[in-house]
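Batch manifest, entry 17 of 40.
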Amino acid sequence: MNLHNNQNSNSKSKYFIAVAILLLATGAYFLLAKQKSDPPAETNAASSVKTTSPSPSEDQLSITAEQAKEVKPGPVQMKTFEQKHDAIGIIDFNQDKIVPVFSAYAGKISKVLVKAGDEVNQGQVLFTIQVPDIANAASNLLTTAGNLKVANATLKRAKELAEFKSISLKELEQNIADQQSAEGNYEAALKTMHLFDLNDDDIQQILNGRKVEVEMAVKSPTKGKVVNRNAAPGAYVQPGNSPAPVTISDTSHLWLVANIPESDISFYKIGQRISVSVQAYPNVLFEANISYIADAVDPNSHRVTIRAEIANPKHQLMPQMLASFTIYSGDPIHSPALPLTAVVRENDGNFSAWMTNNGTDYTRRIVKTGLSQDGYVQILEGLKQGETVAQDKALFLSNLFITTH
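Output type: structure tokens
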């Protein structure tokens, strides 16, 4: 009985061992099959790095022979660039040479002898005005002139009589005092007439003709042009009341007035030379010099007012003309340069040019630009003198590069 139990126990042990071996073999089989079907992790990683590496030809562009005929290669040249800054202003009257002409006395305008645009000389009569006070002054002048004439004659006779002791010394002295008083009154009357802007010839004419005029001439105090006329016959005017009956200005000297950004103020100096041009005379440059720079910045526009004096001997410039001007802030710069058509602004904001050695294979070169003048742009970095670059059609090359890459 014990022997039979031992045999059953041995059979069961052998059975379990066989099952375990079978399970191990099956697991090993499936594990080996999976390793064969999946690529190694190192292989996947290497493949990923390879696909994301940049292409060595991403800035290269090749064009056909037909396309090359449309592009003009040429060397980077050296050009001279002026250190200058352009701005816009207006031509205006020179306020130091504009004179509003008023009458010194209130009255009614009688005659107007000039019109707007007339050239006048200093001392020329512009208009006449009826001034009642001038009649009183002229009457007083005639009276004092007559009294002086009588006093002179009386004193002459008194001196003759005094020589023969025919009159007393006291009477002679009284005649001398009367003559001096008459002379003083006459001099005062003359000065009053001069206050009415009458010269010696005008006064002598009144004395000779013994005619009292109430019409006073208003004359130009300077040489220039009549730029405004408000005077009209019959109009009543008073001293200093605007508008002035006549305004005279020396238009051979004008102002250029401009408002410049506060960021540019360091370029401007008193006495600095500027070149001015206007649309009416595009081929003529007018020279001017800065005479005024404002002491404060406009808080709203953040601009600064400057003023330049400009000569206008041929009277070509007119007030309120729009003018552009250029200032020179330093010595000329000699630098590598390209035509504007050879440089393209890329989407990232950089500027580029296309360099070539054979006219069909091009390489894009990022450049740093500077001043732009006369169709050329200054190259500060990226290219050197003599290197061959597409002189035009740079935009075409950049667009072609985008569509082919």
